[in-house]
Amino acid sequence: MGRPPGGPPGATPQVESGSVSVFNDTALRDRVADAVIGARAYQLFTYAQASRIAAGGSIGPESSLNKVFWSELDIALHETALDLLGPYGELSDEAGEAPAHGSWAEGHTFSLAGPIYAGTNEIQRDIIAERLLGLPKGRR
């Protein structure tokens, strides 16, 4: 964390997508910052849950917050990475020029299942509403 793509901490990022620096694209630059912040928030929330369990606590309904946040972050991270990589991000493992052996495109496809498996995000939101926020049961 804290290290911009393409250089040491404090360096000006030099990531290129095609012929235009992606950091000239303020929307994409903001998405990269959001990804870094989201990854750090997920890390800290997970550490807090692990600490609570290590101290004898139980998993509880807070895990629903973690699942919803993670599954939506996973999609956003992969979409941002694919935008940073440009057309190379869509290459499969068989393509010699595929960054990370095509794992970004494959990871993106898998990330789309995240809001569905391990309990749909809609069910997780119901758990959050009822058990954490104390809202009445029923359709929202």
UniProtKB/TrEMBL annotation:
SUPFAM superfamilies: Acyl-CoA dehydrogenase C-terminal domain-like. Residues 22-133 form the Acyl-CoA dehydrogenase/oxidase C-terminal domain. One of its GO terms (molecular function) is oxidoreductase activity, acting on the CH-CH group of donors. Keywords: Flavoprotein, Oxidoreductase. Signal peptide: none annotated. The keyword Transport does not apply. This is Alkylation response protein AidB-like acyl-CoA dehydrogenase. GO terms for cellular component: plasma membrane. It comes from the Bacteria. Gene3D superfamilies: Butyryl-CoA Dehydrogenase, subunit A, domain 3. InterPro entries: AcylCo_DH-like_C, AcylCo_DH/oxidase_C, Mycobact_Acyl-CoA_DH.
